[in-house]
Design a protein that fits this description.
Shape: extended
Number of helices: 39
Helix content: 40-55%
Strand content: 5-15%
Number of strands: 8
Family: Belongs to the adaptor complexes large subunit family.
Radius of gyration: 38 Å
Protein name: Beta-adaptin-like protein
InterPro entries: AP_beta, AP_complex_bsu_1_2_4, ARM-like, ARM-type_fold, B-adaptin_app_sub_C, Clathrin/coatomer_adapt-like_N, TBP_dom_sf
Distance between the termini: 106 Å
Organism: Rhynchospora pubera
Subcellular location: Endomembrane system
Length: 831
């Protein structure tokens, strides 16, 4: 007798073992299929749990599909649920397998148990397979007329699922009309709510292309349906109440009496335990009374108590959502909430995001009657162990000071913060003191007396250091050590990595120079030299601007940089009134929580940075139409993020227009003299200011004369050939070149370098980029030969460096061409 075959031990549901586990499950399911032995359903439950466990962790158990379907012939609701879950998961990705489920799902739709009928109908509609929609119509039609409210509820949503699979089939079966009739006659409130939800989505999507759908939408907002829903609102679930209230908020009453009737009907919804229902009711009240100013203000008074109750009850997340809506109302009517300021005091147990929002609200509702109490409370938070909250509280004190007329006590409190000897407190206070001095210049003597004792070395926060530097430059005549402090900061220029600080330092040294020139002369020269060599484009440009301004006229420079002080009356708001009104229109939505209109986080164009392609096929060549584009998928060797522009679109070279021609030829005036931007550093008048500031005269590096290599003055190269050569040739020379200061100053746009290189018989086929990085593709042709030189030149104006890569048909001549190219590049801007 043969020994029994030992079956491998199956893995636990939490640790499935892959193919062997699936095979084992199939065998066991097949053995139990159709079994009516005692305990068979319990065994099936264990097997179904293992199948669902495998499916959950990502193991493909679709091979057991037929066995699962065979085991579904049971009256056990739990087994049915697990089987439907399995079928719904694999039917979407395996439409052929879904055909196996149609018969037993349709059979279950006629089961005696309404729970199984509803589950089967829901699973049938969830298959979402296009070629199976014909099997959905009859079960859905029967489901809408089923005597069980649960089945009708499922059928109402099933119609919406059918619409998303096949809108044509949904309309041909006249399901929208059936849903409308069911909504107006069904005694079950949940069925009515599901019908309403499905109709809203179907007709909203159809309204753009169908006048009938638009009329149906208008009918939903009609008086008869609105009143029908309002009279049954207490029967609805919380979700359904929010749906109905959102519909009511868009209804336009015929007169004021109707408005008061609706508000009286919804009055008790303001005491509902669910915060979503309360907020939806408030939205209705606010929108109904928008045209009634006095009543609208009374609505604010009425909704205060429910909102403040919700803030103190429930989870921190709910409190935050309600606070966001309160914050919106406070911004619109701060006076109405000024007496309730104590409700917005921070509790020890509040999360930081709740505390931050409460601080903003305290700032908004502060007025002459409660400023002292609010500022006193905020000053207590300044010593909070939670550093971000301490910083926010200091900012709140400063904002209150900027919006009040009597700021004596508040300024004293702020100056006391500077004596706390906490870095983050000092940093935030310096920023606020700067803003206070901009609005209240009369406080300069008191503030400067305290600020002058603060060492710049102890400030690490960039914004705070920038604020201190601003005060050193703005009030250098009142601060004896200001020139020497600024000089020490300039000496440590390389150690300061923040562009914001460097920008403020340049401006402060310039201001100090016009007030105390002998003491600041050396520091200004060093600052301008460091700024011109800075890698940050903004810092470089500001230093260059100041340098040219001083060269032009020192008196003009003083009027530009150091004009008479004018107090700032109003600081710019972070949000426009139009944005705030739009957020208010979207009350009771994520727009209020995000504090931005919905289109800013739902529309695709607002959801991410614009990405430039790295494909060489984006090189635009020739005419304005953009049709002449190199279509190859050849990639750059570098990771280039620049959008390369057509040179013919940008140049005004007087040459013939090509009108879509696929050939690029040199302009006819390539050998004529071209007027380029000349740096004023070559003028004798500029030497005086260079000598005064200790900058000296920067000489252009002298290169050896270029070797004897003659280039064709009018080479012709079509884009396809250029790209083909670029992809096939290897790099024969790779070098780095240095531009002169005059060259950097002249490179305000790619066209200036393009024209200069054309004068040297080197043509540009494409260019692009944004400061400080520019990218060029040049080509040249050897005189009397068919040999071409292709050049990729990447220029960084901040470092005055150019990375050059050359590919040549004749590699032996590439060194000579490289020298000629570098010679032409080094002379850029000197003539």
């Amino acid at each position: 007798m043969a020994p029994p075959v030992s079956t491998p031990k199956s893995a636990s549901p939490s640790q499935p073992s892959g193919k062997s586990e699936v095979t084992d499950l199939k065998l066991q399911l097949r053995h139990l299929a159709g079994s009516r032995a005692p305990g068979a359903d319990d065994a099936k439950r264990d097997l179904f749990k293992r199948v669902i466990s495998c499916m959950t962790v990502g193991i493909d158990v679709s091979p057991a599909f037929s066995e699962m379907v065979m085991c579904s012939a049971t009256s056990d609701v739990v087994l049915k649920k697990m089987c439907y879950l399995y079928v719904g998961n694999y039917a979407r990705c395996n439409p052929d397998l879904a055909l196996l489920t149609i018969n037993f799902l349709q059979k279950d739709c006629h089961d005696q148990d309404p729970t199984i009928r509803g589950l089967a109908l829901r699973s049938l509609c969830s298959l979402r397979v296009q070629n199976l929609v014909e099997y959905l119509v009859a079960p859905l039609a029967a489901g809408l007329k089923d005597h069980s409210s649960y089945v009708r509820t499922v059928a109402a949503i099933g119609v919406l699922k059918l619409y998303h699979i096949s809108a044509t089939m949904c309309h041909d079966s006249d399901f929208p009309a059936a849903l409308k009739a069911l909504m107006l006659s069904d005694p079950d409130a949940q069925v009515v709510a599901n019908c309403l939800y499905s109709l809203l989505e179907i007709w909203t999507q159809d309204a753009a292309n169908s006048d009938e759908a638009a009329r149906e939408i208008e009918a939903l907002y009609g008086k008869s349906i609105i009143y029908y829903l309002l009279n049954r609102i207490k029967d609805f679930s919380e979700w359904a109440q929010c749906l109905v209230l959102d519909l009511v908020s868009k209804y336009i009453p015929s007169d004021n009496n109707e408005i008061f009737d609706m508000m009286n009907l919804l009055e008790d919804r303001l005491q509902h335990a669910n915060g979503a229902v309360v907020l939806a009711t408030i939205k209705v009240f606010l929108h109904l009374t928008m045209s009634m100013t006095d009543v609208h203000q009374q609505v604010y008074e009425r909704i205060k108590a429910p909102l403040l109750t919700l803030v103190g009850a429930g989870s921190p997340e709910q409190s935050y959502a309600v606070l966001c809506h309160l914050h919106l109302l406070v911004m619109r009517a701060p006076m109405l909430f000024s007496s309730d300021y104590k409700h917005f005091y921070c509790q020890f147990s509040d999360p930081s995001y709740v505390k931050k929002l409460k601080l903003e609200m305290l700032t908004a509702i502060a007025n002459e009657s409660n400023t002292y109490e609010i500022v006193t409370e905020l000053c207590e938070y300044a010593g909070n162990v939670d550093v971000p909250i301490a910083q926010e509280s200091i900012r709140a004190v400063g904002k209150i000071a900027l919006q009040q007329y009597d700021v004596n006590a508040i300024v004293d409190r702020l100056l006391q913060f500077l004596e706390m000897e906490k870095d983050y407190v000092t940093a935030e206070t310096l920023v606020l003191v700067k803003d206070l001095l901009r609005k209240y210049p009369q406080w300069s003597h008191d503030c400067i007396a305290v600020v002058g004792n603060i060492s710049s070395n102890s400030i690490q926060e960039p914004k705070a250091k920038a604020a201190l530097i601003w005060m050193l430059g703005e009030y250098s005549q009142d601060m004896m050590d200001a020139p020497y402090v600024l000089e020490s900061l300039v000496e440590n220029w390389e150690e300061e990595h923040s562009p914001e600080v460097r920008l403020h330092l340049l401006t402060a040294v310039m201001k100090c120079f016009f007030k105390r020139a002998p003491e600041t002369q050396k520091a200004l020269g060093a600052a301008l030299a460091a700024g011109l060599a800075d890698n940050n484009q903004d810092v470089h440009d500001r230093a260059l601007f100041y340098y040219r301004l001083l060269q032009y006229d020192v008196a003009v420079a003083e009027r530009v940089v150091n004009p008479p002080k004018q107090a700032v009356s109003v600081f710019a708001d972070t949000q426009s009134s139009e944005i705030k009104d739009r957020i208010f229109d979207e009350f009771n939505s994520l727009s209020v929580v995000y504090q931005k209109p919905s289109y800013l986080f739902t529309d695709k164009e607002h959801r991410g940075p614009f990405e430039f392609s790295e494909d060489l096929s984006n090189l635009a060549i020739g005419g304005d139409s953009g049709d002449d584009v190199i279509h190859s998928a050849q990639r750059y060797e570098e990771n280039d993020k620049d959008l390369l522009l057509s040179t013919s679109d940008k140049e005004e070279n007087g040459g013939p227009t090509h009108n879509g021609s696929s050939t690029y030829s040199a302009p006819s005036d390539v050998n004529s003299s071209t007027s380029l931007v000349s740096s004023s550093t070559t003028q004798p008048a500029a030497f005086a200011i260079d000598d005064l500031l200790g900058l000296g005269v920067l000489d252009t590096p002298v290169l050896p004369p270029p070797p004897a290599l003659s280039l064709n003055a009018k080479p012709v190269l079509d884009p396809g050939t250029f790209q083909k050569k670029w992809g096939q040739l290897t790099v024969s020379s790779s070098q780095e070149s240095t531009l002169s200061i005059q060259g950097v100053a002249s490179l305000t746009a790619p066209q200036s370098l393009i024209k200069h290189m054309q004068n040297n018989s080197i043509q540009c086929i494409a260019s692009g980029g944004q400061p400080p990085n520019y990218k060029f593709f040049f080509f040249a042709q050897k005189e009397g030969s068919s040999s071409f030189f292709l050049v990729e030149c990447i220029v960084n104006t901040a470092s005055a460096k150019a990375q050059i890569k050359i590919k040549a048909d004749d590699a032996s001549a590439s060194d000579a061409f490289a020298s000629l190219f570098q010679s032409a590049l080094s002379n850029f801007g000197s003539s």
